[in-house]
Write a structure and sequence with these properties.
Number of strands: 8
CATH architecture of the largest domain: Alpha-Beta Barrel
Shape: globular
Number of helices: 17
Helix content: 40-55%
Radius of gyration: 21 Å
Distance between the termini: 32 Å
Number of domains: 2
Order of helices and strands: HEEHHEHEHHEHEHEHEHHHHHHHH
Oligomer: single chain
């Protein structure tokens, strides 16, 4: 989630009910070189705890050194090792999911980092189910990581070759959860409360991780949390209900969605990481595109978002969009 899970967005997700989060991943080498830009990726507020800082690299000793620096700077609740990123520029440097093809190196990296910093903070990992369809090895990788001191693993149910195409393989995620004694967090295609309830019910995972769905709907955390709490209450009362039928919260109104979007942009301008107001709006155009997913009349919105240059312009777009939608369906915009 590089370029997505920054300080501001994580704060919004926490308000919406996210339990545990990680930063955007950072390069171990960038940290060791005291790169100011790299160090910015480790910023977080105390209110966002428990929070982990995610590292990538392929040299266990260097990654351990970088982790110590981060702990000295920021005192995160855990360090997360990224063995899942499919991006070419990361893989070409033998980082991310490339280590799934080299289990001895993966074991060396994980073991070295865990042995070096494990007394200071827990070490977790994020993986994919394999490099490609012919080399799905996630259960084996999970056992290797567990044996090398990793204390929890998030498993994304796609191979590196898949990228984000196709469906997540939850059978393999389930196999991972049954192969080890440490918590396995399932990730992939969780886009509704029903998805989360189903995966929690049908697999041995300890938790679900939500990624891309939060880009367009950060309020999904509130909805999933409410659904899980209701299911727990139903189970305690011996009143089973169908996960797909659980609807514990009223869907967020279009007006409230716009208010969150405007607040996200306003806080990002105030933060200043991306530059001045114009630079911030330019950097956030892709984020606005994601927010518009599922919006009524989304195509014209995306055309406007591709050129938006100020917070006031975005406010005007919001006002006009809400006015038009209220004229079509009066209850939709303000219900």
């Amino acid at each position: 989630m590089a370029g997505v899970t920054d300080l501001i967005f994580r704060g919004l997700c926490k308000e919406m009910g996210a339990d545990v989060m990680t930063t955007e991943f950072v390069s171990a080498e960038g940290i060791l070189q005291a790169d100011k830009r790299t160090r910015k990726y480790t910023e977080f507020d105390e209110s966002q705890r428990p929070l982990g800082i995610q590292l990538f690299g392929a040299d266990g000793q260097r990654m351990a050194e970088a982790a110590h620096k981060i702990i000295d700077w920021k005192q995160p609740d855990f360090i997360d090792l990224n063995f899942g990123c499919p991006v070419k520029k990361v893989v070409s440097r033998n980082g991310g999911s490339s280590l799934l093809k080299d289990c001895p190196l993966l074991a060396e990296v994980a073991g070295t980092v865990a042995a070096s910093i494990g007394q200071r903070v827990p070490v977790t990992a994020k993986i994919r189910i394999g490099w490609d369809a012919s080399s799905i090895n996630a259960p084996e990788v999970c056992r290797i990581l567990e044996n090398n001191g990793i204390q929890a693993i998030a498993v994304h149910g796609r191979t590196r070759a898949q990228g984000y195409s196709g469906e997540a393989d939850w059978d393999t995620i389930d196999a991972c959860a049954r192969a080890v004694d440490i918590p396995i967090i399932g990730n992939g295609d969780i886009s509704s409360p029903a998805d989360a309830l189903r995966r929690k019910k049908e697999t041995a995972i300890s938790a679900v991780m939500i990624g891309r769905a939060a880009m367009s709907s950060p309020w999904i955390f509130r909805e999933v949390r409410a659904a899980l709490d209701l299911q727990k209450q139903n189970d305690a009362n011996d009143s089973p209900s169908s996960p797909a039928a659980v609807t514990p919260t009223t869907p967020i109104s279009l007006n409230d969605q716009w208010q969150l979007i405007l607040r996200h942009v306003s806080l990002s301008i105030e933060w200043g990481r991306y530059g001045n107001e114009l630079q911030t709006l330019r950097s956030m155009r892709s984020r606005l595109m994601a927010y518009s997913k599922g919006f009524p009349a989304g195509k014209p919105l995306r055309q406007r978002f591709s050129q938006v240059a100020s917070l006031q312009e975005l406010q005007d777009i919001a006002d006009k969009h809400l006015e038009r939608q209220e004229a079509i369906l009066p209850t939709q915009a303000h219900s």
